[in-house]
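TASK: fixed-backbone design
INPUT:
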């Protein structure tokens, strides 16, 4: 019996694979390696290919006696999703439906779906609960919401037990080798600017927050991985009913908080450049996390300093020390 992790060679997926391995669980990975890296899966079996290939998926499920799936494989760049919506609906929606179809046909018992806080859009609330109205503003967010609906409805119509996990702002690395290879999120974007000798940018400092900059709930990727292990065990227990759960710390950090932490960790002094707001950036998005604690017994362990420190170690390993 094995667990399948789709997208297990990517940034978040590789952390989930490592956490399952540490827990003594046998793992098989499906990844097309479009953004993932073969070296990240460790000793787990890697099947190179797409979840859009039904024969490959079914063959993998049967040959590895897969009893549960953690579905992480997805396209996830908001800007790209708006420019190429067909790609995002094909990869994220059609891909998820194809995987669910194979799971039911092959008798898979448990399904953990990696969703996103992007499903909420721009909620005008102090704390975002799982019951906050959903109004995604990007194709990416809509593709994740449709994926949630598909998982919920298939679970209701079959014996599949399932849970959807809505990530907030993921950062950090469990080990330097598993650091975020992309430069799409705030912390690696700041690192890239510093390495190039540029001032990091703040997109707007006139928001209705304490320091005028946006506030987000940052969550360590190692905490994300542990939440997946807890979720898989919960849905595999046989006592579960479909749930949607936020994954965050329940604590907000502003852009200036993050930049101050980066300066402290790296020892590099800098003055950020304040530029115009980006369209669609809400002032504050912070998760309410009572439900995931009550349901899974899971609580985040790492703070912002841990995230920035581990992310910096990963950046240095991949790119070297800035000159």
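OUTPUT:
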């Amino acid at each position: 019996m094995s667990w399948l992790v789709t997208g297990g060679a990517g940034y978040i997926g590789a952390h989930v694979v490592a956490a399952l391995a540490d827990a003594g669980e046998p793992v098989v990975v499906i990844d097309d390696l479009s953004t993932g890296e073969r070296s990240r899966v460790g000793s787990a079996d890697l099947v190179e290919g797409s979840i859009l290939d039904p024969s490959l998926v079914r063959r993998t499920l049967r040959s590895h006696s897969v009893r549960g799936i953690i579905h992480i494989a997805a396209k996830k760049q908001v800007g790209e999703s708006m420019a190429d919506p067909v790609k995002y609906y094909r990869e994220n929606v059609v891909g998820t439906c194809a995987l669910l179809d194979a799971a039911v046909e092959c008798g898979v018992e448990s399904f953990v779906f990696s969703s996103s806080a992007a499903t909420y859009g721009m909620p005008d609330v102090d704390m975002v609960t799982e019951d906050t109205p959903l109004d995604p503003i990007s194709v990416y967010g809509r593709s994740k919401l449709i994926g949630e609906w598909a998982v919920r409805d298939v679970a209701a119509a079959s014996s599949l037990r399932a849970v959807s996990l809505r990530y907030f702002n993921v950062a950090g690395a469990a080990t330097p080798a598993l650091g975020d290879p992309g430069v799409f999120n705030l912390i690696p974007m700041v690192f890239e600017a510093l390495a190039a000798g540029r001032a990091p940018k703040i997109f707007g400092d006139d928001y209705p927050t304490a320091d005028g900059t946006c506030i987000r709930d940052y969550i360590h990727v190692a905490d994300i991985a542990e939440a997946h292990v807890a979720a898989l065990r919960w849905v595999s227990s046989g006592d579960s009913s479909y749930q949607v759960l936020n994954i965050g710390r329940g604590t907000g950090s502003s852009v200036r908080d993050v930049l101050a932490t980066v300066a402290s960790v790296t020892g590099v002094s800098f003055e950020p450049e304040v530029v115009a707001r980006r369209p669609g950036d809400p002032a504050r998005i912070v998760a309410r996390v009572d439900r995931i604690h009550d349901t899974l017994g899971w609580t985040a362990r790492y703070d912002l300093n841990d995230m920035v420190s581990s992310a910096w170690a990963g950046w240095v390993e991949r790119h070297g020390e800035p000159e």
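COMMENT: The domain at 2-170+219-247 is CATH 3.40.50.720 (Rossmann fold).
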